[in-house]
Fold this sequence. Notes:
Distance between the termini of chain B: 121 Å
Largest interface: A-B, 124 and 64 residues
Helix content of chain A: under 10%
Largest sheet of chain A: 6 strands, antiparallel
Number of strands of chain A: 35
Helix content of chain B: under 10%
Strand order of the largest sheet of chain B: 1-2-3-6-5-4
Oligomer: heterodimer
Strand content of chain B: over 45%
Distance between the termini of chain A: 53 Å
Strand content of chain A: 25-35%
Shape of chain B: rod-shaped
Amino acid sequence: xxxxxxxxxxxxxxxxxxxxxxxxxxxxxxxxxxxxxxxxxxxxxxxxxxxxxxxxxxxxxxxxxxxxxxxxxxxxxxxxxxxxxxxxxxxxxxxxxxxxxxxxxxxxxxxxxxxxxxxxxxxxxxxxxxxxxxxxxxxxxxxxxxxxxxxxxxxxxxxxxxxxxxxxxxxxxxxxxxxxxxxxxxxxxxxxxxxxxxxxxxxxxxxxxxxxxxxxxxxxxxxxxxxxxxxxxxxxxxxxxxxxxxxxxxxxxxxxxxxxxxxxxxxxxxxxxxxxxxxxxxxxxxxxxxxxxxxxxxxxxxxxxxxxxxxxxxxxxxxxxxxxxxxxxxxxxxxxxxxxxxxxxxxxxxxxxxxxxxxxxxxxxxxxxxxxxxxxxxxxxxxxxxxxxxxxxxxxxxxxxxxxxxxxxxxxxxxxxxxxxxxxxxxxxxxxxxxxxxxxxxxxxxxxxxxxxxxxxxxxxxxxxxxxxxxxxxxxxxxxxxxxxxxxxxxxxxxxxxxxxxxxxxxxxxxxxxxxxxxxxxxxxxxxxxxxxxxxxxxxxxxxxxxxxxxxxxxxxxxxxxxxxxxxxxxxxxxxxxxxxxxxxxxxxxxxxxxxxxxxxxxxxxxxxxxxxxxxxxxxxxxxxxxxxxxxxxxxxxxxxxxxxxxxxxxxxxxxxxxxxxxxxxxxxxxxxxxxxxxxxxx
Amino acid sequence: xxxxxxxxxxxxxxxxxxxxxxxxxxxxxxxxxxxxxxxxxxxxxxxxxxxxxxxxxxxxxxxxxxxxxxxxxxxxxxxxxxxxxxxxxxxxxxxxxxxxxxxxxxxxxxxxxxxxxxxxxxxxxxxxxxxxxxxxxxxxxx
Lengths: 683, 142
């Protein structure tokens, strides 16, 4: 007997095996070699007790969705859908059928041009501690009335490539009978009759969808571009002594990225807000999983359970199928073989996220002001500099070879705010007198405790705003980002249109070095650190240097800021013979302002982070499509194309046409036919 | 003598399935030897109207455009050219093909070289944030 393995938690953890059953109105259990032959389009997982054999287990039942149905939203047209809540899951949710031995590929099913491929590395799990009657070992409900068993099942399917439905069916056992709610448009199977009326059975059908899997259009009246409510009933079990379902969260996305989810509130009156699902993938075919989280609350509002992980289902592209909307298939079917995407697909574990940066521990090199290196912050140069050039300072250190100014490694200025947030995020609570090698300048100053400022400073979502077609990409669309202190960079739209750009900035507060990393996420959700640009944001401040000792010496103790070398990459120049010293008195000390004023021209550039997207404007002609068509590269026949089986209509120009089937025609006529089809015809 | 159907089609020549408004069925003589792809018909002068442009010959099971009309007294000679699209439309519809361009089955992500763009672009500019002011720093020893 075939089994299904359900996993909770991590891979290969908490495995539970259940019998697989084809619940095809007969309660017949799957035999091992039957599963692979089925056409899976809608899968329902049931926990079931076979009334005939008393055998218990979970099973999957396959339903066939109806094709071509358009759902009309029941709103009044102006109602906008609730924006999705973005939920981040703590652990990945998986679904899969796995044989006793996990294999790379197991079941494949045909769903028009898509395959539902059960990836054995994906699992779904139930938290068995929660009460939903899913406990395989116990079919007795201690909370509900005796002999009443509650099951939860999920239906997942997609059709038309445009939208999908998740259905939650609450099935009831009563008096050992099993039945379904026939009000569902897709499930009309009654296994055994029951003496419970259908009105007592509550279920919800949540229809939702969206074009190409992107965030759904809030215009609820657009057919096939928006999900609709249909046959939904609220979850209200209070009259039956059952717990009421409070929230259902639908999630779809690509593991392990942040998943966009929305939910519908279900109150006791059966009202609910229209649910939305926003996927991270551009195309429904690229959705890697869909999951449901159901939160159950007691009728008095106290949660009785934590979130229940739901099922996820993998959708994969059919091998060699014609995939539009960003697919990478040319549409030409291979004659002798098909390619497999198994080995080439980047698994969710391989996806690079935006947090791939190293954290440097700089705390070891700074001290708190007494000995060692200190980062003095937020003081006044106007107060400090005169002190260092004062008579008192010179008199004190005139005859001492050691110059406290030599304790200054660098003096500089760095931008203070990013969008009104302080860049020096941590500093001492109090101010202290600035000290240099034990010399107390009496200049009050904070001590900076942060040495690096590192932030994701911007995220820009880039939608296919104008075209959802080739002009959104190179070379038609151009993207430029200005990175303060680093410069401007051209971003390839191929890396981010339909996805997003994340800009990370790191500033080394010890020298003003800036490192900017731009992460691009493309329409398939692949995130990569595409660009790294460095610069410097520090403005060096020259401090007074003075000469002591031998006034004729050409050695000038010069305080230059280390930033100059960081910018120019050259060693700090020793400035000598800059000033002609007066030789009138050996004891005359001259104060010389030296030091290299750092020429960081980047500081005079734009301090703003901005993005410029330049998009082409194409000229639309009403008859363009009818008279010239659009690029296709789909194979098939005029009567039936290989993508969706529909006939070609309107204008058709072929790149290849074989007229051998026109046996009635002469050779010349066949040549003429081919020539006409290659030049373009109207159908 | 053969029977032909003569009439008018207002559809473009490159239209696969044309609407043929049959005006009349006529008897005519087909000039021999005859090329089935471009036969020559001989009819009486009053049987062909100036508006006629399309013919179906059941014996050949083909449709034809009237390519040339010659009048010689009471005789009209029609030079025909086979409309291979209409004549074999059912077979053509079942022939394998790869579409290069299509009105209803297309992929918007394939660059369309026939698409025209305006000479100016649309610019979207957005400021996402800015640095401001300056703070004083001094990195020192002791």
